[in-house]
Amino acid sequence: MNEQENACCGCQQDAETAERLSHHDEKTIRELVTRLNRIEGQIRGIKGMIERHVYCDDILNQMASVQSALNGAAKLLLEKHMKSCVLEQLQAGDEKVIDEVVKTIFKLVK
Q1: Domain at 37, CATH number
Q2: Would you give the distance in Å from CA 23 to the centre of its chain?
Q3: What is the pLDDT along the chain (110 residues), one digit of tens a residue?
Q4: C-alpha to C-alpha distance for 104 and 102, rounded to whole angstroms
């Protein structure tokens, strides 16, 4: 099988695992990693709050903040995906990508 076959947006497909790989620019990767590192720190902070018996409302507010941060990271990744992978697949005549994106969006808005 050609490594490019069935790969999204012209990115490489790992021949050993048959996984599609993204080809985001370094700026996008840095931004996503920075956001996820911040979220990871927030999660550790929430865990510590629970262990210290912090007032429930304060913990719930921190949890809402984490959910908002995760949504922001997901929106960024979805935007990049739509503007690259999805666009390129549509231009190549692959309309199945629409069903894939719709399914993903439905999961995000649950």
Answers
A1: 1.20.58.1000
A2: 13
A3: 344 444 444 444 555 556 777 778 899 999 999 999 999 999 999 999 999 999 999 999 999 999 999 999 999 999 999 998 899 999 999 999 999 999 999 999 98
A4: 5
Q: Residue 100: is it exposed, middle or buried by C-beta count within 10 angstroms (0-12/13-18/19+)?
A: middle
Q: What is the pTM of this model?
A: 0.77
What does the DSSP 8-state code read for residue 40? Answer: H
> Under DSSP, is residue 54 helix (H, G, I), strand (E, B) or coil?
coil
Distance of CA 73 to the CA centre of its chain: 6
Domain span holding position 56 = 25-108
Assign residue 12 a region: left if phi > 0, alpha if psi is -120 to 50, beta otherwise?
Answer: beta
* In a domain? residue 14: no
Residue 108 to residue 110: CA distance in whole angstroms: 6
Between CA 36 and CA 34 the distance in angstroms is 5
